[in-house]
Amino acid sequence: MDVVIGIDTGTTATKGVAAGPDGTIRALTSVHYPLVVPGPGRAELDPAALRDAAVKALVDVAEACRANGDRVIAVGLSAFLHAIVPMDGDGAPLGPLVTWADARAGEQSERIVAEGRGKRLQGRTGTPVHPMSPLTKLAWWRDNDPETLRKTPRWGGVKELVLAALADAPYAVDLSIASGTGLYDIHERRWDPEALDIAGVTAGQLAEVLPTTTVLKLRPGVARAAGLDPATPLVIGAADGPLANLGVGATPAGVAAVSLGTSGALRTVVDRPTADRAGRLFCYALTEDRWVIGGAVNNAGSVVRWAGQSFAAGFERPGAEGEDADERDAALLVEAQGVAAGSDGLLCLPYLLGERAPWWKPGLRGAYLGLRREHGRAHLVRSAVEGVCQQLALVRDSFTAEGIAVTEVRATGGAVASELWVGVLAAALDVPVAVADTPEGTALGACLLARHALGELPDLDQAASLVPLGEPTRPDPANAHLYARLRPLIESSALAVLEVVKELDRIAPPALPTTEKAVS
């Protein structure tokens, strides 16, 4: 079979898949690395580990393809958004890669918003002004290490780093990644002068922006290591969020994609760059004429993992001896299914890692409200799941305010293996939720975009018919009504306690571990 390889560089692992023309996964691999947390609010990766992982994933999948008797006709790339790394003139990293989860630029983010520039910049760049964005990260460097900022020849992200390792090409980045930097005018298609001034960099320090369908060449050494023809097309690809929509077939109007892994997101596709009036939604490119709007939340499966570590360790449960973290999480979710919707009056603000959409407010922290003596472990877990799904429903409410209807959701990620997660999500969004039967939607999206670039998938909406789905879970009407009543309480309470938790951070700064592992 003729297959396309998709390489997806994620926050804690690089995934590689080989997919046939009908979307069938023929080979799959994963190369892991730790997220380094060297201090409060910081989250970094070793850039050399990312480059090595991309090469290894390609080599491993190509080897599996040969074992299957398949022929690799192209390679497509995906990368996570909002990272920044200093690089030399040849694309080699000069320091750690700062990830989307790094929050050190909170002061810079708040200052930009206080100056009245936030919504204006978001309207032009499609990226909310938030500590996640490269714009605010570079502004942090400008305030704290201006010499490094000025002397660094190049500033890039994950895609630039991976391309430097894989591609025999000039210094480049795809339109999709560029649209998530907060530095690129998605309407004028240029690096934004005001954003560059705030960041303290020049356009010459940033990569050339190319369409997501651009075909490049593999480095000869990489092609040899993978056993591939040196002429094998390398499609530059896009960012992980837009490609996740493509990979689950959520590109037609009215269809949204939900990702529920360590973090989460709700996204839908539109035909042109779109800025919402309230400044609550991002807008990133899939191709030059297909754009993805939505919102990402920092916390999803990570909240249940935290609950397992905090509430289940040391508790005796039948058959619990020797279970691993995934098994413990699954057991907690089954236990939480015994609690009624609404968790008997317990409300969770699940912002253990801060929060992004829909408010983009630095400094948010987690909390339980309405806690009573009769609440037990199962209530705490169910309430956390409800809190995450309600946060995604707040993003959906922002769609509604812009006249964008969502009638169907396709879900993917490790959390959707749980009946509780899917049921709560369907009720919170009040639409049917079908779980996509694909192990790696984002990497599959990279494969499909590569086929589109080669002319084999002219209409991206054809992807909707390629991805098998499970039977949709329909929302329970009573639960949907209850969650709609509770949702305004989440927004009012989250913003009400913001100043309290900021003062707590000043009084007792959080101590964080040096590494964190993700939930698949």
TrEMBL record:
<protein>
    <submittedName>
        <fullName>Gluconokinase</fullName>
    </submittedName>
</protein>
<dbReference type="Pfam" id="PF00370">
    <property type="entry name" value="FGGY_N"/>
</dbReference>
<dbReference type="InterPro" id="IPR018483">
    <property type="entry name" value="Carb_kinase_FGGY_CS"/>
</dbReference>
<dbReference type="InterPro" id="IPR018484">
    <property type="entry name" value="FGGY_N"/>
</dbReference>
<dbReference type="InterPro" id="IPR018485">
    <property type="entry name" value="FGGY_C"/>
</dbReference>
<feature type="domain" description="Carbohydrate kinase FGGY C-terminal">
    <location>
        <begin position="256"/>
        <end position="453"/>
    </location>
</feature>
<comment type="similarity">
    <text>Belongs to the FGGY kinase family.</text>
</comment>
<dbReference type="Pfam" id="PF02782">
    <property type="entry name" value="FGGY_C"/>
</dbReference>
<keyword id="KW-0418">Kinase</keyword>
<dbReference type="InterPro" id="IPR050406">
    <property type="entry name" value="FGGY_Carb_Kinase"/>
</dbReference>
<dbReference type="InterPro" id="IPR043129">
    <property type="entry name" value="ATPase_NBD"/>
</dbReference>
<dbReference type="InterPro" id="IPR000577">
    <property type="entry name" value="Carb_kinase_FGGY"/>
</dbReference>
<keyword id="KW-0808">Transferase</keyword>
<feature type="domain" description="Carbohydrate kinase FGGY N-terminal">
    <location>
        <begin position="4"/>
        <end position="247"/>
    </location>
</feature>
